[in-house]
Each structure stands twice: as C-alpha cells, then as structure tokens.
C-alpha cells in the first residue's frame, strides 16, 4: 500500500492537487477547515468555493494567456476545468460558471473518489514529522495559527499578509523616444549597471494635472475585515500620498534628482515616474512605488497620461488586498517544495499566483510533483514556454528581485500573461497579406502554438516522469 499524501486546504488549488494525486493511484487526505472554522470570504462548506466573481476570465485559447491556461489544464485532465466546462453559463468569450453547480461537482467528484478522504478540520501548525508529504494550499485567507507556524519556518519577512501591487507594463509598449534608461546618480546597484531604470519625465503642468487626476480618481474601498489588517507606511497607496500634499510625490517616488533627460538635456524635469525591470526575461517592468487602490479602468486612463506611457499595455494593474503569500522565488524549489523543509509543498494563491485558474494550475502541478515523488520518480517541470511553465517559473525564479537587503518584498502576486513567456526567437511573425489581426495578435497566437506543441510533448506518456 502506497503511503498517503496530505493536502491542507480544499479550495481551488487543494482540490485540483488532490484529484491529480488520486488519479496517479495514490491515497490522499484533504484537510479542509470549513465549516468547522470559516474564512472572512467563504460562505459555504463546499470545496473549491468561488469567493467572488463567477468568471474564470477569457476562454479564448488562441490569443489570450488565461484562455491558453484553460486549454493546457483541459489537456492535463484538470478536475477544476472539467467542472467549469460542465457548469458554464453564457458569458460571451469568458468562461463563467454556475458557482454552486461548479463547487458542488468538485465536492462530489472528490467525495466519490475512493482514494480521497476529506477531513473537516483546521490544521493549526506545521504538521508532525510522521506526515512526510504535505501540500499546503490554504489560500489568501490562510488561518492565522497556521500562517504563524509557517512563518516560524520561513522567517517573518518572507510571508506577507497584504499585497501592495504596483502596475506592471510590457516593455515593448513604452515609448523610448520620450523615456530614457538611467539609474539615479548613475549609481550601479548590486544586481546591475548604472542604467537600470526607465524614466518617464513630467514638466510642472503635466505633474499638476497628474496629481489632480490621482486625487479625483475613482478608488476601491477596503473591505471591513481588511481594514483591521495592518499595512505599512512604507507602501502607502500613491493617491494617499498625493492627498497628503501636492508636492509629496515630487519629493518621494517621483523625485527627479540625479537624472538627466538625454532627449531634452537643457530642460528641467519637474518629476519622473521610474520603472524597474520585473522579470528575468526583461519583458515586464513595474512602476516603482505606484501601489494603488484606484479602480482598474482609472489606472489605465490616468497612467496613460504619463509621457512615454500613452500606449502602455498593462500586464498587471495595481492594488492593495489582504493576501497571505510566500516570497516563493527565495523559499521554494522548482517542484514547489519548501527548501527549509522539503516535506512541505505549497500550491495556489499562497505561492504568489493570482486568480482562480492560476491557483488551480499550480495545484495541478503540485499534485503531479507530489504523486511522482511518492512513486519514487522525478517529474520534470513543464517547459517555460507553456502557460503552466511560465507561471511556475514566475514563482520559483523568473521574478527579478530589486536586489539588496529587504528587496525580497518586491515579489508580488501575478495573473498569467504573455509577458511571463520567453519571447519568440527573432524574426517576429510576419503579417500574412489579407490576413486579419494586428501584429500583436499574431505574436500572441505564435506564442500559443509554441506553448501547446511544447505542452503536448511534456504530457506525452513517460516524457515528464523519470526514475529518481
Ligand atoms: C475577497 C476575495 C475576493 C477574490 N476574488 C477573486 C475573483 O473574483 N476572481 C479570482 O480569480 N480570484 C479572486 N480571489 C482570489 C482567490 O481567492 C483565489 O484566486 C483562489 O480562491 C485561490 O485558490 P486557493 O486554492 O489558493 O485558495 P482558496 O480557494 O481560498 O482555498 C483555500 C482553502 O483553505 C482552507 N483553509 C485555510 N486555512 C486552513 C487551515 N489552517 N486548515 C485547513 N484548511 C484551511 C480555506 O477554508 C479554503 O477552503 C479573491 C480573493 C479574495 C480573498
């Protein structure tokens, strides 16, 4: 008899992980605390409950990164995608589901799988040594007792309780005829040279208009239960800083000192917005110090008034939410094991992915890795050219920390997006005469075709599993 794997948390990630483990013929025990103990957002005792929207976002696998992730998960026999497909509702190009039908189906499927045992209990500490394979998938609202216990293993600074997300842009949408590369005072940092930042210049009139727009912009409110979770002065939303005084930003994250605009060397720059490289591929750049509670549409409208960002494409928009997540690039190995205690794997939103589908996708991988390990085998990670592989790479190493002490906190949760994929080898796909669609669409479609071909090779029997 093969020994069981424990899965803590029966949400999107934990349910998918348990399904994959059982599908490999291995017994699995799911420990879910609801209904014994509730979270601030869940309403039912069903597994895989959707806490907010009922949408899995775009289902367009041909040109959309989350649609591609859907397709990859279907091909990898995902329980979550099968249940979503079965309970889908009319929603245009999106995959929206009947939430009760969806969660009910996941719960029934797992209850009916003979290798799965579901125990309704809170795991309030890192489990005892006798549990030798554990997946922790307790999500953004991990109970505080368990979070504290995990923190004792990872170190206090490596588990966050709030995300403070600054927007991230695609590098190729920034107008470099207006912006320029330079570090303040041309100072070389620990991780790079003396031109590591992209600088967007504002004159006094542009700065004043920008501050007015920030202050007047439509904001999202904190939920009641979020208000009691402390966040730090060090990561105040940009609009809160703007409200404190018209010049606060010009003396803070937008200060122009130590920078010279090579496009207009004689003209004084009143303020700058700085962007810093966000991933090792160099395809994504974040807006330094620009965490915000502005509504998403407002962010796009207001940030596109910044010179050089008029055509900006956002891979992620800013936000501030209650969210428990690890500094995964530092803490986890490439098969999602905690380096400090490899009995423990992590999956779902707690690893620093964002969203229902991404969480389930990482659950699928954690389950497959744990199952292979239990059988004495090694499961290779999916290629980084696939959506599953790009997400895994983001949380286990692809994110570029800003370097230096305390820099670890620059890792923030991310939805899947094409900026996480390695670029296509040059030349870029050419537009075919008479074919509809922009160059960007063609590029996305080429990324998708490469992803699915690589995924199919990885999924082929025996291809990803080898003897240890
Ligand atoms: C308020 C809110 C709104 C959100 N809205 C959206 C949205 O609209 N769209 C979207 O894509 N994503 C949304 N998210 C993010 C969403 O939570 C994740 O995308 C997804 O649910 C994460 O999956 P998960 O499996 O990691 O965590 P969850 O689905 O939250 O599952 C974690 C499970 O672990 C259980 N658990 C926690 N601690 C313990 C413990 N100590 N012992 C045993 N069990 C435990 C919980 O009860 C829960 O069932 C939202 C998150 C929050 C907090």
The total strand number stands at 19
Characterize the largest beta sheet: strand count, sense, and whether it forms a barrel.
6 strands, mixed
β-strand amount: 15-25%
Strand order of the largest sheet: 6-2-1-7-17-16
Count of individual helical segments:
13
Task: Please characterize this protein's 3D structure.
The chain is an alpha+beta fold. It is built from 13 helices and 19 strands. Helix 1 (12-23) links the parallel strand 1 and strand 2 (28-32). Bound molecules: flavin-adenine dinucleotide.
List the helices and strands and how they pair.
Layout: E1 5-8, H1 12-23, E2 28-32, E3 55-58, H2 65-75, H3 79-86, E4 88-89, E5 94-97, H4 99-111, E6 116-120, E7 134-136, H5 144-154, E8 159-165, E9 168-170, E10 180-181, E11 197-202, H6 204-216, H7 224-227, H8 238-244, E12 271-277, E13 284-287, H9 296-303, E14 314-316, E15 319-326, H10 328-331, E16 337-338, E17 341-346, H11 356-374, E18 377-379, H12 387-398, H13 439-459, E19 465-467
Parallel strand pairs: 1-2, 1-7, 2-6, 7-17
Antiparallel strand pairs: 3-5, 4-5, 8-15, 9-13, 9-14, 10-11, 11-12, 12-13, 16-17, 18-19
Helix pairs in contact: 1-11, 2-11, 2-13, 3-4
